Amino acid sequence: MNPFRYGKIVTGEFYCPRPEDIRLKNAFSGGRNVALIGRRRVGKSSSIHNVVSAMRPRHTLVYFDFYQVRGVDDMVQRMLRALPSQTFDWLRDFARGLTRLRPKLELDPTTGTPSIGIGSEAVLDEQTLEDLLIQLGKMRNTVIAFDEFQDVAIMKTGEGVLARMRSVIQQQLDSLYVFSGSSRKMMTALFENSTQPFFQAAEKLEIGPIPTKKFTNWIVKRFQTRTIHKETAASIVEEFEGIPGDIQRFCAALWDVSLPGKPINAAEHLPLAKDYVLESHSSTYNNIFYRYTVKQRQVLIALAKLGTKSPHSSEFLKKAAVSSQVSQKAIKRLLSDAILSRDEDGLFFDDQFFAAWIRRMHP
Asked: What is the per-residue pLDDT across 115-131, written as a single tens digit (0 to 9) for each?
């Protein structure tokens, strides 16, 4: 069995513990809500799940993903779908507080798992969201996680929605909330700007790459009998900047291209692993790449080749063969599509393997 996991929430033995886990657990133990900030695929969701798992059975987790949420109706529907699988009686009691949904209890014909369905005359508005939050607050000793929380703020009605959410959440003393987000600028504004509804509503905790030494030792142990030298493992961590999602994806490929009981040969196996990843995602990357116009693709190629730190320099514009205005518009689109992200150090590819694929296909 491949000992590495990626592309989903990672738990148990497949999770590499990180220093921030202790601070997150201490905040929960102290009854404090948390604003967890870190770039995508850095492992925020996995950290939340593993910390709460270690607090069971006293605490349970209810997790909602608001990535690119479109509006209040979308929020409500996502939250209903993500409600934990409970008994029929529990869901019936929970649904009694959601009269605006005209709720109906449904059973999955295959698994028999109960869920809350929405009636044909349901009203999915801010009051319904408030009712749903009130019902969630009745779940004692629960950690409620809102992932990509900053995306709520950029909805058309975001400001009003946040104000109503805060008015409910601040009255719930038996529940803990963790607001997770990948935009440091937006999350910091939400929780540190005195004009915002969630001003000082949570303890800010930034989560970054896992330290090289810690991740290196974990990787060495995971390879078990397929011995990998610490220097090789460390080079992997450094190449992918300590980002768990990218590192686990590469290590999974490295496992697949190596043989049981045989040591990892860096010169032979590392290039094979990168080829394996790029080839397995080639169709997806190709579809993404050709989604864009010729000019936008030229900007993408220049970003992948020259790096993302100086996208407005004369060298960059010459390489991309576009004007400054075209480059700026292309970058804005790429940021909107989450191909690129931005932090205080500048732009970066959200998926490092996509950048590598572009360099390979357009040498």
From this structure: 888 887 888 999 999 99
Residue closest to 172 by CA, chosen among 143, 206, 203, 151 = 143
Residue 308 structure tokens: 């993302």
CB 233 within 8 A of CB 16: no
Cis peptide preceding 57, ω within 30 of 0: yes
Q: Measure the CA–CA gap between 233 and 220, rounded to whole angstroms.
A: 7
Could you tell me if 265 and 231 are in contact, meaning their C-beta atoms sit under 8 angstroms apart? no
Q: What is the rounded CA–CA span in Å between residue 277 and residue 251?
A: 10
Helix (H) or strand (E) holding 326: helix 324-336
Q: For the chain, how are helix, strand and coil distributed in percent, rounded to 5?
A: 50, 10, 35
Q: How many helices (H) and strands (E) does the chain have?
A: 17, 9
DSSP string, 167-191: HHHTT-SSEEEEEEES-HHHHHHHH
CB 303 within 8 A of CB 340: yes
* CA 47/CA 205 separation, integer angstroms: 12
Among the listed residues 212, 202, 148, 204, the one whose alpha carbon sits nearest the alpha carbon of residue 176: 202
Tell the residue number behind the tokens 């929405």, with chain if given: 118
Q: Look at 242 and 90; give whichever has higher pLDDT.
A: 242
Q: Report whether pLDDT(354) > 90.
A: yes
Structure tokens belonging to residue 92 = 């019936």
Closest CA to 237 of 255, 218, 253: 218
Q: Which DSSP category does 74 fall into?
A: H
**Amino acid letter at 8?**
K
Residues in the chain: 363
Answer yes or no: is pLDDT of 251 > 90. yes
β-bridge mates for residue 180, sequence order? 36
CA angle centred on 25, ends 4 and 151, rounded to 5°: 75
C-alpha of 311 from chain center: 26
What are 269's two structure tokens?
């196996």
